[in-house]
Each structure stands twice: as C-alpha cells, then as structure tokens.
C-alpha cells in the first residue's frame, strides 16, 4: 500500500491546476467538482478518480466502518467526499503558502465529516434511503401562507431593549 493515492490524470500537474491564475484554469477550477455542471463523460472520469481516492482513504485511515462501500449511491456522501478530495489535493499536492497547519486542518475536516459519511442502514449491504414524501407545490404554497400570516411578517416592530431604555434620559 502506498502513502498517497494514485491520482487520475485529471490535471497535467496537480500543483499547477491549483496555483495557475490563467482565466482558463480559473474557469476550470470554479466548475471542476460541480457534478451537475460536468458532461457525462467527465462525470464518469472524475467519479472513477474519486473512487480510487476513496478506496485509498478507507484503507489508509481505517474508515471501513465510517464510509460505506456503497458511498457512491448516496449523493450527500458523494458531495462530502468530493469536498474532502478537493481539500486533500489542495493540502497535499499543491503549495499552501500561509497555511502552516493545512494538513491538520484537513484531518480535522475529515474527522468533522465522518458522522455525515456513515450510513448505518448500509452496514450489511446497500439500502436505499426512504423516499421523502414531499409535494413541492404544496410546500411552496405553505411557505407563501406562512409569509402572509405568521410572526416574521406580521409582528409589530419593537426593539428587545426598548423597555430597559425607556426610563433613561436621552443624552444631550
């Protein structure tokens, strides 16, 4: 097992992809991990790269119980792993001027996201999460009714400290 994952050839030079200020690189950097903004072929390529990294991550950090084998079937997990991957590349593959503790920050980010990566229902194999029963049209109507009739839009204007300052003489 190697110390660092074998990164897919998504960049000619990973450090250059992060440090270059060219307009082409800036545009690429802004959209590079927005899954919906990728062409299907690019999604497949990047998902394969992410999968190689996640395999390394699960082994290196002994996260088999925290990151389910079916992580790619859970969009919220994919998004969090994508953020961790991008952060990993920035931290370990590119210079981090002014970030003396970048590695510690990345490890902290990993630790803070672990509870959100876990899918207890998938510990014995993949299980789709239950579908949410939510009528979007009704939710929109409910929100509009809330705006028309509830506290945030109908309460009179008051200041929380108004009673406390009412007895004080105003300054000259």
TrEMBL record:
Region: Disordered, residue numbers: 118-172
Sequence ranges of Basic and acidic residues compositional bias: 161-172
Superkingdom of source: Bacteria
Protein name in the entry: DUF4913 domain-containing protein
Source species: Streptomyces sodiiphilus
């Amino acid at each position: 097992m190697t110390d660092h994952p074998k990164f897919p050839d998504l960049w000619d030079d990973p450090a250059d992809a992060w440090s270059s200020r060219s307009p082409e690189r800036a545009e690429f950097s802004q959209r590079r991990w927005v899954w919906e903004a990728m062409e299907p072929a690019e999604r497949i390529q990047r998902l394969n790269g992410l999968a190689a990294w996640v395999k390394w991550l699960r082994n290196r950090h002994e996260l088999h119980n925290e990151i389910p084998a079916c992580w790619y079937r859970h969009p919220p997990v994919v998004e969090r792993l994508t953020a961790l991957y991008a952060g990993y590349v920035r931290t370990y593959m590119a210079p981090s001027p002014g970030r003396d503790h970048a590695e510690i920050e990345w490890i902290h980010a990993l630790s803070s996201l672990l509870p959100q990566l876990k899918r207890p229902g998938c510990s014995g194999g993949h299980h789709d999460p239950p579908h949410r029963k939510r009528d979007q049209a009704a939710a929109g109507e409910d929100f509009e009714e809330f705006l028309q009739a509830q506290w945030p839009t109908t309460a009179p204007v008051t200041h929380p400290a108004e009673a406390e300052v009412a007895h004080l003489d105003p300054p000259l």
